[in-house]
């Protein structure tokens, strides 16, 4: 049985040179193309969707390689990417003199040359470039003035002291300030600075630079800040705790323009004397210069005679705290409701806390009260003012609804550091001001039967405010005898004769008959 695969075709002998010849290869390729053309039939019609340019480029012999086409496409993509990068760079820089560069992120060289690399590069002189910014142009104008100090421009003389030119020159000098100094962008408009403004900015820059290089600011370390305590104040409070007067300090209760009020718990096991369960720590601020201007409240006080003088701010604050302590003790001895003094350390005054459970009593201005409470408060304030003048021999000098606390239907006087003696030269002026503040407040609250300020003043002193002579005589009764002024701890002695004359005005005359001696 014969098999078609068993037939072996005879191999024609071929020369090796013919095989390697290009002509033989071309003939073989033509035969192969002809064979496949007969096998698949004639080519189909061209699709109308393909443009003739694409077909011509495909038939071109120069685009036979896919790698060349890919390189051309990549080159176009890189060019578009670099153009987008350049636009982004121009957007970020704007007109600023200090600019950033995206040169390292480019896909193609900045000056891409498709020609031979052997060509010489074009050299551009930097002097032929345009000015970087407006300041370079102005600097050229400044340098154009000759050594004589003036030049003629458009028929007028322009000197080196020209206001406009100096203003622009000062604006150029802003660039010499430290980098941390915020000068802004003065290149986009015609910025001019006067010599006064520039010198102020220069001094401020120098002060900030010197302060930044300081290792330690002693003034800031010593001063009591608004929302905190300095190291010295914390040490004073720590000593009070070490003396077993206080157990702990809880936090800030209120912050005023003169002092910071802290809440603290007293030591219940203190053996020397009973202490209130809750205490208030009043820390006078040592940075305020207002205390130096308040010597008018101290200069006529015999208790501080000769101690004011040219004191430092800290020493003045110490006197102010001591004055409040003495005034609070006077109020307490006269049975006027007020905080009780616990201890005084320099400018730290510890006293009883008006309130309960860490919650301070509200001021009379902020207290929620009904009509009956306002009537009670008015009567208490008036009686306290009379007692303060007659028994404690003090005038508050800053009495208002802001310095009166309302706690358990009782009014408490606070902030008595500025209280003065009746012998003070402005004592009755301060008293009249207190009367006005009290009457105005209770009048606004529509309290019935509120007297006038003059009537309240007369009920306290016994004289009208316009009776200057009588007030001066009354003031003399409170003055201390000269030989007792410098002796500490001695209070003014009551003049019995003048007091008796004053009491006889309100009493009937009683005749006394001497009884015969037994």
Automatic annotation (TrEMBL):
<dbReference type="GO" id="GO:0051607">
    <property type="term" value="P:defense response to virus"/>
</dbReference>
<keyword id="KW-0597">Phosphoprotein</keyword>
<dbReference type="GO" id="GO:0030688">
    <property type="term" value="C:preribosome, small subunit precursor"/>
</dbReference>
<keyword id="KW-0067">ATP-binding</keyword>
<dbReference type="GO" id="GO:0004674">
    <property type="term" value="F:protein serine/threonine kinase activity"/>
</dbReference>
<comment type="similarity">
    <text>Belongs to the protein kinase superfamily. RIO-type Ser/Thr kinase family.</text>
</comment>
<dbReference type="GO" id="GO:0030490">
    <property type="term" value="P:maturation of SSU-rRNA"/>
</dbReference>
<keyword id="KW-0460">Magnesium</keyword>
<dbReference type="GO" id="GO:0005524">
    <property type="term" value="F:ATP binding"/>
</dbReference>
<dbReference type="InterPro" id="IPR017406">
    <property type="entry name" value="Ser/Thr_kinase_Rio3"/>
</dbReference>
<keyword id="KW-0547">Nucleotide-binding</keyword>
<dbReference type="GO" id="GO:0106310">
    <property type="term" value="F:protein serine kinase activity"/>
</dbReference>
<dbReference type="GO" id="GO:0045087">
    <property type="term" value="P:innate immune response"/>
</dbReference>
<dbReference type="InterPro" id="IPR051272">
    <property type="entry name" value="RIO-type_Ser/Thr_kinase"/>
</dbReference>
<dbReference type="InterPro" id="IPR018934">
    <property type="entry name" value="RIO_dom"/>
</dbReference>
<dbReference type="Pfam" id="PF01163">
    <property type="entry name" value="RIO1"/>
</dbReference>
<keyword id="KW-0479">Metal-binding</keyword>
<comment type="subunit">
    <text>Interacts with CASP10. Interacts with IRF3; RIOK3 probably mediates the interaction of TBK1 with IRF3. Associated with 40S pre-ribosomal particles.</text>
</comment>
<keyword id="KW-0690">Ribosome biogenesis</keyword>
<keyword id="KW-0399">Innate immunity</keyword>
<keyword id="KW-0418">Kinase</keyword>
<keyword id="KW-0723">Serine/threonine-protein kinase</keyword>
<keyword id="KW-0808">Transferase</keyword>
<dbReference type="InterPro" id="IPR011009">
    <property type="entry name" value="Kinase-like_dom_sf"/>
</dbReference>
<keyword id="KW-0051">Antiviral defense</keyword>
<dbReference type="InterPro" id="IPR018935">
    <property type="entry name" value="RIO_kinase_CS"/>
</dbReference>
<protein>
    <recommendedName>
        <fullName>Serine/threonine-protein kinase RIO3</fullName>
        <ecNumber>2.7.11.1</ecNumber>
    </recommendedName>
</protein>
<dbReference type="InterPro" id="IPR000687">
    <property type="entry name" value="RIO_kinase"/>
</dbReference>
<dbReference type="GO" id="GO:0005829">
    <property type="term" value="C:cytosol"/>
</dbReference>
<keyword id="KW-0391">Immunity</keyword>
<feature type="domain" description="RIO kinase">
    <location>
        <begin position="218"/>
        <end position="462"/>
    </location>
</feature>
<dbReference type="GO" id="GO:0046872">
    <property type="term" value="F:metal ion binding"/>
</dbReference>
<keyword id="KW-0963">Cytoplasm</keyword>
């Amino acid at each position: 049985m014969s098999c078609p695969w068993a037939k072996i075709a005879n191999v024609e002998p071929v020369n090796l040179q013919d095989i390697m010849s290009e002509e033989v290869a071309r003939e073989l390729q033509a035969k192969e193309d002809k064979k496949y053309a007969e096998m698949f039939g004639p080519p189909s019609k061209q699709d109308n969707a393909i443009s003739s340019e694409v077909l011509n480029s495909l038939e071109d012999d120069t685009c036979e390689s896919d790698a060349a086409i890919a390189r051309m496409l990549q080159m176009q993509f890189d060019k578009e990417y670099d153009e987008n990068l350049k636009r982004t760079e121009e957007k970020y820089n704007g007109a600023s003199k200090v600019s950033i560069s995206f040169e390292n992120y480019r896909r193609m060289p900045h000056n891409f040359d498709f020609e031979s690399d052997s060509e010489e590069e074009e050299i551009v002189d930097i002097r032929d470039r345009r000015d970087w910014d407006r300041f370079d142009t102005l600097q050229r104008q400044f340098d154009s003035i000759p050594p004589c100090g003036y030049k003629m421009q458009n028929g007028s003389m322009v000197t080196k002291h020209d206001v406009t030119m100096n203003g622009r020159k000062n604006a150029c000098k802003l660039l010499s300030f430290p980098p941390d100094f915020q000068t802004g962008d003065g290149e986009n408009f015609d910025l001019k600075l006067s010599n006064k403004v520039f010198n102020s900015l220069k001094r401020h820059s120098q002060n900030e630079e010197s302060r930044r290089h300081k290792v330690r600011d002693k003034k800031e370390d010593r001063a009591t800040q608004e929302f905190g305590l300095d190291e010295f104040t914390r040490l004073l409070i720590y000593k009070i705790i070490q003396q077993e007067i206080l157990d702990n300090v809880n936090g800030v209760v209120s912050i005023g323009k003169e002092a910071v009020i802290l809440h603290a718990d007293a030591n219940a096991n203190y053996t020397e004397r009973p202490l209130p369960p809750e205490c208030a720590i009043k820390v006078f601020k040592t940075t305020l210069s207002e205390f130096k201007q308040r010597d008018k409240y101290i200069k006529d006080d015999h208790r501080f005679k000769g101690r004011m003088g040219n004191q430092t701010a800290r020493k003045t604050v110490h006197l102010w705290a001591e004055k409040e302590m003495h005034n609070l003790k006077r109020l307490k001895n006269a049975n006027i409701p007020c905080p009780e003094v616990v201890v005084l350390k320099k400018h730290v005054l510890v006293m009883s806390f008006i309130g309960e459970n860490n919650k301070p009593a509200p001021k009379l201005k902020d207290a929620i009260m009904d009509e009956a409470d306002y009537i009670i408060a008015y009567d208490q304030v008036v009686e306290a003012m009379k007692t303060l003048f007659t028994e404690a021999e003090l005038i508050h000098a800053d009495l208002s609804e802001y310095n009166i606390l309302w706690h358990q239907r009782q009014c408490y006087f606070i902030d008595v550091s500025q209280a003065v003696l009746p012998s003070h030269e402005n004592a009755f002026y301060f008293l009249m001001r207190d009367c006005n503040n009290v009457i105005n407040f209770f009048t606004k609250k529509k309290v019935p039967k509120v007297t006038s300020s003059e009537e309240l003043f007369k009920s306290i002193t016994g004289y009208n405010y316009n009776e200057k002579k009588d007030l001066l005589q009354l003031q003399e009764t409170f003055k201390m005898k000269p030989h007792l002024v410098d002796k500490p701890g001695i209070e003014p002695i009551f003049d019995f004769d003048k007091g008796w004359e004053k009491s006889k005005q309100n009493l009937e005359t009683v005749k006394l008959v001497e009884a015969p001696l037994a």
